[in-house]
Amino acid sequence: MTSSDSQTSSPPFSPITSKRVLLSGNQAVARGGYECGVTVATSYPGTPCTEILETLATYDSIKAMWSANEKVALETALGAAFAGARALVSMKHVGLNVAADPLFSSAYTGINGGLVIVVGDDPSANSSQNEQDSRHYARAAKLPMLEPSNSQEIKDLMAYAFELSEQFDTPVILRLTTRLCHSKTVVRLGTPPKNPRGASGFVRDFDKFVLLPRQALLRHSVIENRLLALAENAEKLPFNVTEIRDRDLGIVTAGMAYNYVREAFPDASILKLAQTFPLPAKLIREFATEVNRLLVIEELDPFLDEQIRALGVTVEQADWLPRVGELSPERIERSLARGTPQPLEKGDEAIPPRAPRICAGCQYLGVYTAIARLGVTVAGDIGCYTLGSLSPWNAIDTVVCMGASIGTALGMEKALGEESHGKVLAIIGDGTLLHSGLAPLLDFVHNGGRGTILIMDNSTTAMTGLQGHSGNGKLAQGENSAGHGIDLEKLVRALGVEWVRVADPYNLEETEAILREALDYAGPAVVISRAPCLLIKPKPPVQRAQWNAEACTGCGDCFEVGCVAIEPQEFQGRYAPKISQDLCVGCTLCVQVCPEGALKPRPVSGDLIELGMWKPQAQPMSR
Fold first, then answer.
1. What is the pLDDT of residue 31?
2. Which of the pair, 30 or 569, is modelled with greater confidence?
């Protein structure tokens, strides 16, 4: 498609209504899936894509499910597609790593219904442990990838993605980025089907669905032929848009980067690609002949740049383009003007920086206060509790990926031998344990691990917004499942752990004593620190800490708890604690650590509680 206009709307694939609404990218994915008859949707929560399944769960016609992890989510969606349904699975970029095994095999099996895999990349690692570019998965797995640039395109491309999936018997990857997931643009709603078609039924096909070595070899030929057909089909894809303006400069771009390019180079001619693998070679070559200079501008890796050069197209060197961090129009302009990648903008310097903090009164405060006294090496994991790596505790030494803590601790122990006994601790959350910690725990027991594993059980997936999981029994729609969640003690014992204790994290003396006993135990030991997240079970405080100036010596022990409700104030030439009565929840952790008794619990007036005006002062983080 060619246009001389700066904005070109994509054709809808469902009858449109006159209703126009503001939707985030995540909401547009869900709306698009709803309009084109998705019947099964799966996911594991992870920023920037969490809200996709949360929105899908509001549609009665869709069976929306939180899965144990991204691998299970993809396998479940794939099974639904095998049964002839339209299925959708969503995850963040590091979740695609977890799902990589079924991802590659699904390219071989193909599908029966339709399957769209939505992945959200996180440039600048706003809430992630890395900044990977998921486009490489499309090329490696030999699956088609689509990249929209606004919420309207997201909704419309969802319908096209399912058509493409069904036409070519393949899963289709839809790539978003954090900015696109969370930004809102105007969307014209379509009319959802009155009677979703449902599943057509599974059809047995041994050579297609059973990946024995012989069948895999046969299916590989199918994949290679499919890629050629997909590339040819991309030549006429209406979402690939050519915008001819000033012919002196032409830019090839895709996804969110298109919006940056339009602002940074308002007069340039642009080829906006909606399908970024496999590429429409003829379209790209034709565009290159229309302009004098050709640039490729994209976020993160030179994915398009390398492929376009491989087509024999002359592309101007773009070594000035940043490969680290999120782009912006201003960053692109500064980098080009100075001929070298420019760092990310610092933001408004009038706004003081604020490091992420653990919520006031969270169980983690007590646990990390205890751990900081133990002098152990701590292998950490992914969750709110990762913040234990920061001051004042500095209580986590490694963080790699979901579920890595237990295996990392075992490796340290085996490498260091006897000298490591009682000195290595693994920390993992209840949700993370069920996501990818059970196999490492089984391995820990099987291989004679002697270390201690601390499970932080707060009865939810707190970091991404309090989603349910099999441990608490909460479903995506909010209600509880037929069961009441998994008993972690029984589960851990079933895996072969004999030494299991449950600690009250609000009792510092007890928690420290249990951890020391576990570290001394000559075998695998599991400590479960149990207290529900205050955001799922908020209760008004019946007491708050009160500071006694006369008794305070300024030792600073209260600050070592790390509670945001304890602020420093200058008093008689020294720093002393100031208790924020808005934030304090009366957990008494600061009271327990004060050696002089300068902090005491004070009963709270019931006025605010009786009026129903008290609310917990905390916000969930994001993975």
1. 97
2. 30
The two structure tokens encoding residue 201: 């039924």
pLDDT at 435 over 50: yes
List, as one string, the DSSP characters of 528-589.
EEE---TTTS----SEEEEE-TTT-----GGGGG--TTEEEEEETTEEEEEE-TTT-----H
Total number of residues shown for the chain: 623
- Dump strand ranges (E) for 393-503: 424-429, 452-457, 499-503
How many angstroms separate the CA atoms of 216 and 491, rounded?
37
Rounded CA separation 567/6 (Å) = 52
- What amino acid occupies position 470? S
In the beta sheet, which residues pair with residue 602? 544
- Ramachandran assignment for 565, one of left (phi > 0), alpha (psi -120 to 50 degrees), beta (any other): alpha
Helices 257-264, 329-338: inter-axial angle, 10-degree rounding: 60
Q: CATH 3.40.50.920 in the chain: give the residue spans.
A: 243-338
* Residue 483: per-residue pLDDT: 64
Domain 543-603 of CATH type 3.30.930.10:
no
d(CA 33, CA 15): 14
Question: Which CATH code is given to the segment(s) 2-234?
Answer: 3.40.50.970
The pLDDT tens digits of the residues spanning 350-407 come to 777 777 889 999 999 999 999 999 999 999 999 999 999 999 999 999 999 999 999 9
CATH 3.40.50.970-classified regions of the chain = 2-234, 363-530
SS3 at position 188: strand
Domain 243-338, CATH among 3.40.50.920, 3.90.550.10, 2.30.30.100, 3.30.70.660 = 3.40.50.920
Residue 402: both structure tokens together? 């979901």
User: 2-16, 105-119, 332-346: lowest mean pLDDT where?
Assistant: 2-16
Note whether 402 and 436 are within 8 A (CB): yes
pLDDT band of 127, cuts 50, 70, 90: confident
pLDDT > 90: percent of the chain: 77
Tell me the pairing of strands 63-66 and 172-177.
unpaired
For residue 163, pLDDT over 70 is answered with yes
Is CATH 3.50.50.60 the classification given to domain 363-530?
Answer: no
b/e 285-312 (16+ beta carbons within 10 angstroms → b): eebbeebeebbbbbbbebbbbebbeeee
Q: Is the pLDDT of residue 618 over 50?
A: no
pLDDT-derived band at 482 (thresholds 50, 70, 90) equals low
> Across the strands, what pairs with 241?
272
Strands 452-457 and 424-429: parallel
User: How many CB atoms within 10 Å of residue 220?
Assistant: 13
Contact status, residue 261 vs residue 294, Cβ threshold 8 Å: no
Evaluated on CA atoms 388, 389, 395, 400, the torsion sign reads positive
